[in-house]
Design goal:
The structure holds 2 protein chains of 2 kinds. By secondary structure, chain A is mostly helical. Chain A is built from 17 helices and 2 strands. Chain A has a two-stranded antiparallel sheet with strand order 1-2. In chain A, β1 and β2 form a beta hairpin. In chain A, α12 packs across α14. The two termini of chain A are 58 Å apart. Chain B folds into 2 domains: 139 residues, no CATH class; 223 residues, MetI-like (MetI-like fold). The chains are: A mainly alpha, B mainly alpha. Chain A: Belongs to the binding-protein-dependent transport system permease family. CysTW subfamily. Chain A: It is found in: Cell inner membrane; Cell membrane.
Chain lengths: 487, 452
């Protein structure tokens, strides 16, 4: 792999640069480090960083940009008559890439000389057979324009790789020369290195911002694309969800919203009382030994991956509920996938979330308030109900809102436990589906990304993102406001 | 409290009361107290019972996946079937497909029955084939291709029993279930019982489940989680290699260098919000940016690792900042006092002291990333990989693969209940990894954490 080699060469230059830069600084100070402006190591770091940062930066950017640019250049060369829409173009492009990779593989295995590969033509050779011999299976015979595009692709790729190697090496060596020549005993190496390091720290801190921007942009662009194909009024106010990949889908979000909302309500109805009372007991009543055992045990529930809860819902809780409410008993429940199954299991998942957040908040209520109440003769439970809880209420509301945002965004439990049918119903024993479950099912099918049936997932994701973000901002604001009260 | 003045003021008729005797109101208040306490105990108990139920379900359903039923059958490698021309040419032997080995297995089965004095309940011996896994013929074929010299001999093979036979041995498949099952009949179970008594069938520990690759829908007995474990491993390498340095660098900047201004406020609000964004949204981001926009390969551990990096970054930043904050300012002041630069004081003194806390946070972030499923589904980390282990480091990052939680999800979706057992078994392995990581984190914290 040439990129890996290039990386090794650049790293080697940097290491050599470190020692040479340090040696040069020492030499200019006649071997006495006291005459240097900075510690000798800084001169070495300066050289190494000047080699590494620009060269690796260009290399990473190049590796990301080159496939995109080549993709565009090559897809322009494919005749417009060969495909009907962007989906078909994508299929052709993946054929082109496979042919090009296959030719490269054939050359690497010695089945073909490089010259023969460039001179190939669809009339003289059966390319499908030739490539099958080196282990590349093609779905159909190779069209002439696919072959010529593949040849273009290989040529541009070759040029790109060569140019990248040359430029990166030039930058590495240039950087080395620049830093090396600048090195002398009066050069302020420490200040330069520290400025460089600070710049890298700032860059790392901005990645969080870039992630958010990335999320927002990828959601917004595709959502706008979706609303070009599908009216937004029907999306937000439509009462039926019936995607069909043949076209003519009805994509109303309300049934999904209702499912999400219903499941979250059930989950909170389980998690909030259990979590809250557990937090009260553990922080106000429990002996240290009980607390030391029960608190980490409850928190184990929070460390279990959601796929485990999903399986628990699908294979244990669902069937257990069916034996109680199913056709053989009360007859309320048709199948093991239902709102109640998902809601119950999600509630279990949220217990530690509610309990540990509330625990923190109850603990931060000043002891003096409890002492005052107890001193007036109130019992412990009266103190909790009438003094501690009112004081902790805003924080607890914040914790519950955070749990609600968790419940709305939870995916695996509902994918496995809640069912796939979008329904508007009040019956908790029926299968319903949620926004997250539909994002998964719309994007994991074989639909092409340009169809409204796939793009709707981005609109769903956008809605989900906005709702959970709103809840989080509100909850964090409440929690922070409350903390300030007692600090 | 407010009813403390319940006796009318000025009234001479003071009821006689003593602290030693409980009046009704005190009794009521004490009852309320006891009730409230009981609610608390009940809540904690309910939580612990849920945990116990969950763990019980996992262990009870998952442990059988680690053993598998094998049977040892003597297969006669008939020369006239495998090498018609008799010249032992490896190319010609390879031309016999796995289908050509089926008759040999059927013969071997009927011979096994005869050897053990079991009467076959079937009119045709062909029906016995259903008891042996479909993987057996491939296993024998591989053996023949590796040892063409042994054609003509009779060789003992240890082959997998089919999943229904295995299920019957484990008690998962009951006789009543077979009425609706076309894969096996009640007669097969009679034969299974007889073979079990004769010692031909054995339930043994199944390394192939831990180390092997996934198998097709029809042969759950062969499926293993090993390849997806490699996929998860490569993803964790990416997460560790990116999230740790970026997270630490970002935290150092925000905690030590950042001026208090709008920009850093924005970054801070951003990070705390990113930590609460649903994981599936990160999957959408990965799909749109890495796959649609940058054309990185689908199903590659590299892409999965990048998505999980972005997801765990906020967790790591938050815990790193907490441990940087815990280093007392006197350390910084002392370093600055003897002439260190700000950067030197941070990198030479603060960072090493905060390192145990940072590592603990990183391990917990990694454990979270290891168990995450939803974003992986969107970027297609559910590749069906039946055999090929990555042949190099680079291909390990770029070749399609699956990940442990995604593999468990795939198994849970399959129709055959034998796969459910695999899914539970996979969960045991996943939880063992998570437990190990968390224990390491706890040990690190206990051993190196300093209270100032």
């Amino acid at each position: 792999m040439p990129a890996l080699w290039l990386l090794c060469i650049v790293l080697a230059i940097a290491v050599i640069g470190f020692f040479l830069g340090r040696a040069r600084a020492m030499a200019s100070a006649q071997g006495d480090a006291r005459h240097l402006h900075s510690l000798p190591g800084y001169y070495g770091y300066n050289t190494a960083l000047t080699v590494l940062v620009p060269a690796l930066g260009v290399m990473i950017a190049w590796l990301i940009l080159q496939p995109m640019l080549i993709q565009n250049a090559v897809s322009d060369a494919i005749p417009g008559t060969a495909y009907a829409d962007t989906g078909a173009l994508n299929l052709i492009m993946s054929d082109v890439r496979r042919v090009a990779d296959g030719l490269d593989l054939a050359i690497a295995q010695g089945a073909m000389t490089p010259d023969a590969a460039t001179a190939l033509s669809t009339e003289t050779t059966n390319i499908r057979e030739t490539l099958a011999q080196v282990g590349v299976a093609l779905g159909s015979d190779v069209e002439p324009y696919v072959l010529s595009a593949a040849q273009d692709y290989r040529r541009l790729n070759g040029i790109g790789h060569l140019a990248m190697t040359v430029i990166v090496l030039a930058l590495a060596i240039g950087g080395f020369a620049f830093a090396y020549l600048r090195t002398n005993k009066d050069f302020r190496a420490r200040n330069v290195v520290e400025k460089g390091v600070l710049a890298m720290l700032i860059f790392a801190a901005s990645i969080a911002i870039m992630t958010t921007i990335g999320i927002v942009l990828s959601l917004v662009f595709n959502t706008v694309e979706f609303f070009k194909l599908y009216p937004w009024t029907e999306f937000f106010f439509g009462l039926t969800w019936a995607p069909s990949f043949g076209g003519g889908s009805e994509l109303g979000i309300i049934p999904l919203f209702w499912g999400t909302f219903y499941i979250s309500i059930i989950a909170l109805a389980v998690a909030v009382p259990v979590g809250l009372f557990a937090a009260i007991y553990l922080s106000e009543y429990a002996t240290p030994a009980v607390r030391a055992f029960a608190k980490p045990m409850l928190e184990v529930l929070a460390g279990i991956p959601t796929i485990v809860y999903g399986l628990f819902a699908l294979l244990t809780v669902g069937p257990a509920l069916v034996t109680v409410f199913g056709p053989d008993a009360t007859g309320w429940m048709g199948g093991s996938r239902a709102v109640i199954t998902a809601g119950l299991v999600m509630g279990i998942m949220l217990i530690p979330f509610v309990s540990s957040l509330s625990d923190d908040i109850i603990n931060s209520v000043p002891q003096a308030m409890r002492d005052g109440s107890l001193g007036l003769g109130a019992t412990k439970s009266e103190t909790i109900k009438q003094v501690v809880m009112p004081a902790a209420l805003p924080g607890i509301v914040g914790a519950i809102l955070l749990a609600a945002s968790r419940a709305i965004g939870e995916t695996m439990i509902v994918v496995l436990g809640a069912g796939a049918a979008a329904r508007l119903s009040m019956n908790p024993f029926e299968a319903m589906t949620t926004v997250t479950a539909k994002i998964v099912s719309q994007l994991t099918g074989d639909a092409d990304f340009a169809s409204p049936e796939a793009l709707v997932a981005f609109a769903l994701g956008m809605t989900l993102f906005v709702i959970t973000l709103g809840l989080n901002v509100f909850a964090l604001w409440i929690v922070r406001k409350y903390r300030e009260q007692y600090e | 409290m407010t009813d403390a003045t319940s006796t009318p003021p000025g009234g001479g008729a003071r009821t006689k009361s003593s602290l030693m005797t409980l009046d009704n109101r005190v009794r009521r208040r004490n009852a309320a107290e006891a009730r409230f306490r009981a609610y608390g105990i009940a809540a904690v108990t309910v939580g612990l019972i849920f945990l116990a139920l969950l763990l019980f379900a996992i262990v009870r359903n998952g442990v059988p996946a680690f053993t598998q039923t094998f049977m040892t059958i003597p297969v006669e490698l008939k020369a006239d079937k495998l090498d018609k021309n008799g010249n032992r040419d490896i190319e010609e032997i390879k031309k016999v497909s796995t289908f050509g080995y089926k008759p040999l297995i059927i013969d071997a089965m009927s011979r096994t029955l005869a050897d053990n004095g079991i009467e076959s309940p079937f009119a045709k011996d062909k029906d016995l084939e259903k008891m042996v896994s479909a993987s057996a013929s491939a296993q024998i074929r591989d053996f023949v291709i590796a040892n063409p010299g042994r054609i003509g001999e009779t060789v003992d093979f240890r082959v997998l029993a089919s999943s229904r036979v295995d299920g019957y041995m484990k008690g998962r498949v009951a006789r009543e279930d077979l009425a609706r099952d076309k894969n096996l009949d009640a007669e097969h179970l009679d034969v299974t019982d007889a073979l079990n008594e004769a010692g031909v069938l054995k339930r043994e520990f199944n390394w192939a489940f831990i180390l092997g690759a996934d198998a097709s829908e029809s042969r759950p007995e062969q499926a293993g989680i090993g390849v997806s474990m490699l996929g998860s491993f490569f993803m964790m390498l990416v997460v560790l290699g990116l999230a740790l340095p970026i997270g630490v660098a970002a935290s150092i900047y925000l905690e030590e260098f950042a001026p208090k201004n709008r920009w850093t406020d924005l970054i801070e609000v951003n990070i705390s919000n990113l930590a609460a964004v649903p994981s599936i949204v990160f999957g959408i981001l990965g799909l749109a940016v890495f796959i649609q926009f940058a054309h990185l390969p689908q199903s590659a551990p590299l892409v999965g690792g990048l998505v999980l990096t972005l997801m765990t970054l906020p967790t790591i930043i938050i815990s790193t900042r907490a441990s940087l904050k815990a280093v007392p300012p006197s350390i910084r002041d002392a370093a600055l006092g003897v002439g260190a630069s700000k950067m030197q004081s941070v990198f030479h003194h603060v960072l090493p002291l905060a390192m145990p806390g940072i590592l603990t946070g990183t391990i917990i972030g990694l454990a979270q990333a290891l168990g995450e499923t939803a974003p992986l589904l969107l970027i297609g980390m559910v590749g069906y990989i039946a055999s090929n282990y990555p042949d190099g480091i680079a291909s390990g990052f770029l070749d399609p693969n699956s990940a442990m939680p995604a593999q468990i999800y795939e198994w849970a979706k399959r129709a055959d209940p034998a796969y459910y057992e695999r899914a539970w078994g996979g969960i045991i392995i996943l939880l063992l990894f998570l437990m190990t990581m968390n224990i390491i984190a706890i040990i690190l914290r206990r051993r190196f954490e300093r209270r100032w």
